[in-house]
């Protein structure tokens, strides 16, 4: 019974034990059904694109800024760093949400 009054009566150790058992069963079922490898490949691909696309957008914007405005600062490198940072933050959030959902 999830979220019911029974959960309030359980000790933290019992709750942890239940969570570990649930996670173990999911993992065993995924391995048996052959989904674990494909799921991991999908996660790696998604994380890669989540970082790469903002980085490429940053490069494009930075290159445009470099052509448009003369400066001692390289806008391409600056915007690449901004894009990579945004991409890493997005990937971190996505992985955390994915982890919570499993």
UniProtKB/TrEMBL annotation:
<dbReference type="InterPro" id="IPR011744">
    <property type="entry name" value="ATPase_gene1"/>
</dbReference>
<keyword id="KW-0812">Transmembrane</keyword>
<dbReference type="InterPro" id="IPR032820">
    <property type="entry name" value="ATPase_put"/>
</dbReference>
<feature type="transmembrane region" description="Helical">
    <location>
        <begin position="37"/>
        <end position="61"/>
    </location>
</feature>
<feature type="region of interest" description="Disordered">
    <location>
        <begin position="1"/>
        <end position="31"/>
    </location>
</feature>
<dbReference type="Pfam" id="PF09527">
    <property type="entry name" value="ATPase_gene1"/>
</dbReference>
<keyword id="KW-0472">Membrane</keyword>
<protein>
    <submittedName>
        <fullName>ATP synthase I</fullName>
    </submittedName>
</protein>
<feature type="transmembrane region" description="Helical">
    <location>
        <begin position="73"/>
        <end position="92"/>
    </location>
</feature>
<keyword id="KW-1133">Transmembrane helix</keyword>
């Amino acid at each position: 019974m999830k979220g019911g009054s029974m959960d309030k009566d359980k000790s933290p150790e019992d709750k942890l034990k239940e969570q570990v058992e649930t996670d173990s069963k999911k993992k065993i079922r995924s391995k048996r059904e052959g989904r674990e490898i494909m799921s991991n490949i999908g996660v790696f691909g998604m994380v890669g694109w989540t970082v790469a696309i903002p980085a490429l957008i940053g490069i494009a914007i930075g290159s445009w800024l470099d052509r448009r405005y003369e400066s001692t600062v390289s806008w391409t490198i600056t915007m690449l760093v901004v894009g990579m940072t945004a991409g890493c933050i997005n990937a971190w959030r996505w992985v955390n949400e994915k982890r919570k959902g499993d």
